[in-house]
Amino acid sequence: MIDWLNEAKKYQNDLFRDLEMILTIPSVRDTEHATKEFPLGPGPAEALTTMLDLAERDGFTTKNVENVAGRIEYGDGPETLGVFGHLDVVPAGDGWQTDPFKPVIKDGKLYARGSADDKGPALAAYYALKILKDLNLPVNKKIHYILGTDEESEWYGINRYLAVEPTPDFGFSPDAEFPIINGEKGIASFKVTFKAGPAITGALQLRSFDSGIRENMVPQNAQAVLVGHDLDDLSAQFTDFAAENELIGDAQLEDRGLILSLTGKGAHALEPDAGVNAGTYLATFLNQLPLDEAGQQYVRAIAQVMQLDSRGHKLGVAYQDQLMGDLTASPDIFNYQAGENNSVIINIRYPQGTTAETINQQINTTMAKFGDNIASEIFGHAQTPHYVPANDPLVQTLLAVYERQTGLKGQEQIIGGGTYGRLLKRGVAFGAQFPGQPNVMHQANEYMPVADILKATAIYAEALYELTK
Ligand code: ZN
Ligand code: ZN
Questions:
Q1: Are residues 171 and 60 in the same domain?
Q2: Is the overall model pTM greater than 0.85, yes or no?
Q3: Residue 453: pLDDT band by 50, 70, 90 thresholds?
Q4: pLDDT tens digits, one per residue of 230-266
Q5: What range defines the domain where residue 421 resides?
Q6: Which ligand lies nearest to the CA atom of residue 175 in the structure?
Q7: CA quadruple 415, 425, 123, 64: dihedral positive or negative?
Q8: Paired strand residues for 89
Q9: What is the distance in A from the centroid of ligand 1 to the CA of 70?
Q10: Are 83 and 68 found together in one domain?
Q11: Domain boundary residue among 358, 383, 408?
């Protein structure tokens, strides 16, 4: 009998030294600085090559695919088990109490952007592989530990990988939570465009409105610029609005106009209720004002069908499935410039039983009441719902390992997140957030408990062993 947790603890110093090194790399997608050599910018590639160098140091064979994805190999056999992690992170955003790219351990928690999503779990899975190798345990399958560097955006890296490298037969991704995620809702973003047209004359004009940095994050900040008369009164009104809604509001009168800034709470778009959408709140405030026609149309639509509408009832897209639960809707990126074509990007997670095309039609129907210059389109790549049955041996094995090591009951789970689990027909997500832990992924002051990283390492080591013996 192997004491997996004890094995993991032997590697604690090495694991945290390596993890802190990877966390120090700000591996945010940065296509503004993309080159032929670094299609996603330098950060993601640096995290990848650093990780592959660690694996080479430890005696593994590795492969770098175009600086956007990579593989660490171990074992041999007719079948291939894939483990899918990612080394890119979402932008740090505001509200950090420490430097998001200088990891610190405080009260048993490791704070850094990527500590929980997904560098901590990825390093746990890597050390699990290393434990298997160092213990020289029998491995009768190939293990391909595959690392993507664009999971938080368009999956460019992993898609390049699967286009040019062999696809594993089955596998798991350490990029969600325990006990297991064997089902995932469909994910699609919808871009609602407000074509320039309505007049922008009037005593009070909306010059610009901006909120949101990623289409999969509830926006934490929003800013609007107004020009017109009596702006001083508006400042007071805005401060009251912010206070009533327990938000942080700031109004500054500058040469270019009155700048209104609102701070809500960022969160992962898969559960909009976990955040406070600064964009929809700011539009709700502006909707009370006698704005110019174009500005008014924009904020009215947002205030009326997007504010506090996490299940899409007002937007007209609500849907529910017994197995997969509620559709969720999160308007995450707002761009408005007076006189231009403007937009809102809404991220929607939908259960089986509806489709991205249907949802797009429903949004168009709803938006038509605000004007005929508004249209919705599916934005980027839509992903359909994914499900591996609970009686699949992969699910059964992983749950058995989880139960044995934690003493907790495991059960199937379906989420709104899109993980690499969906890359394979028999693919699931497995860890590494433990039940009862708050989900801090994509948020300011993201952390992962040190003890949980070690527990996850032990669980992954046994899982690799059981799945390949
Ligand atoms: Zn992730
Ligand atoms: Zn993420």
A1: yes
A2: no
A3: very high
A4: 898 899 999 999 999 999 999 999 999 999 999 999 9
A5: 4-184+386-467
A6: 1
A7: negative
A8: 28
A9: 16
A10: yes
A11: 383
